[in-house]
Amino acid sequence: MNLGKQKNSSKVGTPPGELIYTGKLEPSKAIINVVSYDQHTYNIRENVDPDFLKTLDKNKIHWIDFENVSDPDKLTSIGEIFNIHKLTMEDIINVNQRTKIEFYDSYTFLVLKIISDSNEKLEFRQFSMIIKENILISFSEEKNFATKWLKTQLESNAGDIRNKDLGYLTFSLMDIVVDSYFSKLSNYISYTQEIDEKITEDIEEELFIKIKKIKQEILRFRRFVAPLKDILFQMQKKEKGIVNEKNQIYFNDLYDHTIRISESIDLLRENLNNLTEIYLSIASNRLNEIMRILTIISTIFIPLTFIAGIYGMNFENMPELHWRFGYFLILGIMATIAVIMIIIFKKKKWF
Amino acid sequence: MNLGKQKNSSKVGTPPGELIYTGKLEPSKAIINVVSYDQHTYNIRENVDPDFLKTLDKNKIHWIDFENVSDPDKLTSIGEIFNIHKLTMEDIINVNQRTKIEFYDSYTFLVLKIISDSNEKLEFRQFSMIIKENILISFSEEKNFATKWLKTQLESNAGDIRNKDLGYLTFSLMDIVVDSYFSKLSNYISYTQEIDEKITEDIEEELFIKIKKIKQEILRFRRFVAPLKDILFQMQKKEKGIVNEKNQIYFNDLYDHTIRISESIDLLRENLNNLTEIYLSIASNRLNEIMRILTIISTIFIPLTFIAGIYGMNFENMPELHWRFGYFLILGIMATIAVIMIIIFKKKKWF
Amino acid sequence: MNLGKQKNSSKVGTPPGELIYTGKLEPSKAIINVVSYDQHTYNIRENVDPDFLKTLDKNKIHWIDFENVSDPDKLTSIGEIFNIHKLTMEDIINVNQRTKIEFYDSYTFLVLKIISDSNEKLEFRQFSMIIKENILISFSEEKNFATKWLKTQLESNAGDIRNKDLGYLTFSLMDIVVDSYFSKLSNYISYTQEIDEKITEDIEEELFIKIKKIKQEILRFRRFVAPLKDILFQMQKKEKGIVNEKNQIYFNDLYDHTIRISESIDLLRENLNNLTEIYLSIASNRLNEIMRILTIISTIFIPLTFIAGIYGMNFENMPELHWRFGYFLILGIMATIAVIMIIIFKKKKWF
Amino acid sequence: MNLGKQKNSSKVGTPPGELIYTGKLEPSKAIINVVSYDQHTYNIRENVDPDFLKTLDKNKIHWIDFENVSDPDKLTSIGEIFNIHKLTMEDIINVNQRTKIEFYDSYTFLVLKIISDSNEKLEFRQFSMIIKENILISFSEEKNFATKWLKTQLESNAGDIRNKDLGYLTFSLMDIVVDSYFSKLSNYISYTQEIDEKITEDIEEELFIKIKKIKQEILRFRRFVAPLKDILFQMQKKEKGIVNEKNQIYFNDLYDHTIRISESIDLLRENLNNLTEIYLSIASNRLNEIMRILTIISTIFIPLTFIAGIYGMNFENMPELHWRFGYFLILGIMATIAVIMIIIFKKKKWF
Amino acid sequence: MNLGKQKNSSKVGTPPGELIYTGKLEPSKAIINVVSYDQHTYNIRENVDPDFLKTLDKNKIHWIDFENVSDPDKLTSIGEIFNIHKLTMEDIINVNQRTKIEFYDSYTFLVLKIISDSNEKLEFRQFSMIIKENILISFSEEKNFATKWLKTQLESNAGDIRNKDLGYLTFSLMDIVVDSYFSKLSNYISYTQEIDEKITEDIEEELFIKIKKIKQEILRFRRFVAPLKDILFQMQKKEKGIVNEKNQIYFNDLYDHTIRISESIDLLRENLNNLTEIYLSIASNRLNEIMRILTIISTIFIPLTFIAGIYGMNFENMPELHWRFGYFLILGIMATIAVIMIIIFKKKKWF
């Protein structure tokens, strides 16, 4: 169970606005890449100095890819250059934010959670964006598939992306993140289906714990997906924001995807609950069957043993002992009793 | 458990708008049929070429029945002829959409789920419609009962359908889909009633799993039915759309049906939960009864066996052994003990 | 478990508007009775011909009591005379409608569910009304207590009913239906109280199944009661409808009753759930107690039997066997062991 | 379980407005007391005749305390004098009303539930009020703490009550009722705490049933408390009603109390659910521990008894029997087996 | 389980507005400290006389820190000096209030709950504030971390606090309280994670009770956190109140924190429920495994013991007894039976 580390308790009492990285990664130097383009030109500059960002051409679209938010110095520089409020800066480096959007006078601030691809376990990294005039700044905790993919898209001008506006660029980043949710979720779904298929054969305690673990991960998942719907709704309501008439259809599509994810999560949860109940019922049935059979065996032999005990007694005067076929008679009686008991139990459908 | 295949993970990272079929059927050539009619004329043209669709008479109502959406080429042709947005085209061929309606400037796009009649198991196929001016285009994954039925209706002019407008045609298709939900659901209901009737007699693990399986299918069902209510509400709100004064009463009726289906689903779920509890309780009762009886049998014989054991001991000096009727006395004592125990257990209502 | 028969699967594919009776009763000839009154006059005509209805006086209030909706011919006549939409007619004869109200231009259509008094089991019959100008038409599946009661009321002018308007007449019918819910519900409540009182004494499987059956019936009940609140709300909102200033207070009272019924149903459900848990807990406690006692008995005798077994061995050299009081010593030891075990178990509060 | 007696089934079919007492108390003669005051004067008249009420001074505030609503005659007199609608009168004497408020043109009608102090068990009595111009009429089923307290308050002019308006008088009565809820609820809370503290020591079936009983009483409690919030909200919304600028702060305080009660009830329910689970878990753990220990004892002795049985056999040729120390060897082997089994069970942490 | 002591039952019947301390601490003398500052000056006066507060400079910001609300005399003085309504005063000293905000004409009243740092167990103390013009008065039940921290902040002018307005001062106090919730909650989270990690190894009853206890504390927690969201929303809506354009961003941040806390609480609850189920399942699995093994051991030996019993019988004519290798034959048969049973049980996967 991982609830996301909470705001560090050592942070209690520090004045708001201080930049302390709260993520799980080793802090490392930030890398700033800038992709600039318009319909005619395209160029990428890697690992630039923050000061370079002061000279960006107002007529092009710029995507500033800020990697490793654990570097407070470069982050501060960026904040000063683009006039970002210190509380926003704090939210970027304190990576325990909720999925959320905030509209400031001069910029929009968006926080997403991206699935870490550097790790087997399900881990989320914070992925935040600032959209300001002709500039999109993305902040990531580490190298990730989303920015890598966007760079390829821009370079190859896939989907005519370079002829579209900043809103479409924002959409592209959000879309790749949501798509990755789909693919992770479909893993859980197919894994659940596997469990569902083998649950009637193979009842082990591990299976139960696996079901529960998936459920816990699904809960975390939902936590990051649930606010997306509201965020997209707010983005559309804002008058002259990122969403406009031309790209609205794409955001609608994205909205549709988030609803599908939410529904799949809900359905998956109900199915996991169902599986839990099936598991518990089968497990208890299996055990009960064993206990029943064993108890029946004992019950058949106990009266017989008693009879044997009778004739093992050492009384002087026990006439049966001297009968010629007493022994065989008793054996016969015992067999008869056993058979009768078995017939009764069979009739009562006890086994 | 089948949650509907999710957006293919291999699709992550492709630009939006690419046409890839994601359904479970074998891709096959599309077939396009056109039914054209007004109050006086009626004709049907089967397996036409997409180009034919450019020449449709503006004064008649046309229903274009597009079968096998797995054919991206013909789909693209259709999309170009009727000027459909590429995201809509993607939603038609990517058959994992939710039940939904989308209003575009020049057309309305509607996605339903139709129960496949080519399969024993409950499977849903996507059934989408585009309504544009005097034309209704329906897209199906395979031949299905809904389009077959509509063709018969139109040919025989049942319910005076040829004298009514495009909205009524749309209603007819939606209505036959919803009616098929009713009939499927009533199967589940009567099946559940059967289980309900025999649950007190026949307690088997399979019964429990059947109950759970029905519940899972019901959950999938609900997922496709739930949005219908909202869709019909939106259709009525739209100013000059498919629903108008003349046919509103039919859509109201349809709305009423969807509510009844939702209610039946909810009631069915509660009943299935009830059955689950009854099953578990009866199953545990049965077992408990068996164990109790068996334990009582053991408990009666164990003290008797002990007594027999006593007189099986080989001590030299055991006076009772030499008593004349020692053996019969002990047998009598044993019988007495057994009877007393049985009386006590009976009094305590232990069996 | 009875979920109400669903729209007949054989109806799938028939055009809307066809009149097929879907109830459980044997179809029979319809009977039409007309009660006409104003402040000064009152007369009742039984079993009239539909054509008679064309001649009704516009200045009186008329209540047309249509019995046995399973007669499509007379129903069609009525529909034509009063110009009722064919979908409304279908809803009258297809008796699987929800409790609902529909406002048409020239009339209001109301569907209630009435408890059948011809049957021991809880069964609901559809009871629909059309209110049009000065006429109230009620449609019932069979003779029932509600129309019988209303006739008596009108004849005796109880509560000055003949001096009041059509709205009050409508209220009277709705009120008697809701009152019958109260009385049925109070049966369930007192039955549940009985179970509650004897549950600690008498734990039988049947009790559990009874609790569950009541819960299922309550679920059906709720389904028909729940929409009433909304219906009454809609009736009041309608500008110049059935509810007016003079009779509003009565409809408010009715509204209050429906809320009380809903609350009682909710409370009853929670109590039934509570009883389920109590039942399961007591049942398992009872069994556990039995098993514990029996196991304790076995546990005490098993070591003693072992000791007896020891001295039943036939070794040549077993010195104890030759001791003079060996036998009595061993008996003493056995008694001591038994007493010690009993003391230990008592101390551990095992019995 | 007590759900409050429902509207008497014998009442089904009576016209609305008939005055029949439906409470549990013995009907008895009504007593009418009148307290009249303004800033300067104060007097109380006990057991007055209804006719006296026609002469009340318009310039004073009057509180009419009507005790024993089971007296339909005096109730009718009151209704006529103050022109109360007969449905209101019915709600006063039919004491199964919900907690509610109704605004009539000339008066406001308020129904509360008061905890009976004449009974050990939790019973609620209906306590209704009519507020009309300068008069507050309270109707109670029997003598109760609320009216007794208010009389004392007025007599001693505690809290300067005689200088305040009719709204404050109403508030005072509602406040004492809500306060009594607090005190009853705190009983339940401390009782639950007691159970919580001793639950780990003392596991008895009665404890479980007690928890369930409290939960049932809490459910009834909530039913009467829940509507209070809404009632207070409606009282404030009404333009020129009981609540005005001067006393609004008191009603706000009352509103706050009702929310606190609701929250406490919810918290209490969750805690009771928690306790149920803890109880069931501990109870099953206790039993399991006993069964485990007993089974271990049996399991150790059964193989030993078998060995003893071997050497109790009477075969002629059993060499071990003739060994000199055969007996002691076997005893040693038995001891060894027992010790080994104990060690194994210990290692597996079975006891 | 601690639900917070309820309004004392001895308070029932006292007129509203009386000052009685209802907390758990020993009443003690109140201490009043005043911190006054503007951009240029700063001074703190400790343990001042209430009368001093009449002379406060209107142009500075004053924070009056009132410690130990259990002192009704000084509280009354404060109330009179600042013209606080007696119901507000009552809410300050009756420390069982909900987390709430109330807007009065001349001041705003805010009630928070602060975690007591003088105690190991989770206990909440009431922490209320009155904001009036340029003055913030905080009332605490005892010395606490929040006021201590604020004093340090003001003294060191951390975060430029002395140059900001009264709203920011209010925010600072609320923020430190919410931060302390975070840190307490993260304790619960890490504690839950510990349990989660060791639950598969170490199944003890205590573990279960611990899980339940955490859940109960979480429930109490939520009760105090839940209303915060609404409070912050109301503070923003108020036209010219504490929140203004300059400090709104800080309150937004605080709002964000409260949502994160709520979400964490919800997630934690679901995880605790999950753990409960895992615990119960593992515990029952462990026991079942033990019982199964033990029962298998018994079942194997019981038939063998029966055979031994047979040949322990003392019949005269038992031919097997005289066979030369009868004994060894029987031993062999017994071994064979045992081996066959073990093989069967193994094959059925019973152990």
UniProtKB/TrEMBL annotation, chains A, B, C, D, E:
Compartments, record wording: Cell membrane; Membrane
MF terms in GO: cobalt ion binding; cobalt ion transmembrane transporter activity; magnesium ion binding; magnesium ion transmembrane transporter activity
Free-text function comment from the UniProt entry: Mediates influx of magnesium ions. Alternates between open and closed states. Activated by low cytoplasmic Mg(2+) levels. Inactive when cytoplasmic Mg(2+) levels are high.
Topology class, membrane: Multi-pass membrane protein
Membrane-spanning segments: 293-313, 325-345
Keyword Nucleus: no
Protein's name according to its UniProt entry: Magnesium transport protein CorA
Signal peptide: none
InterPro entries: CorA_cytoplasmic_dom (IPR045861), CorA_TM1_TM2 (IPR045863), Mg/Co-transport_prot_CorA (IPR004488), MgTranspt_CorA/ZnTranspt_ZntB (IPR002523)
Catalytic activity line of the entry: Mg(2+)(in) = Mg(2+)(out)
Gene name, Swiss-Prot/TrEMBL: corA
GO cellular component terms, A-Z: plasma membrane
Alphabetic keyword roster: Cell membrane, Ion transport, Magnesium, Membrane, Transmembrane, Transmembrane helix, Transport
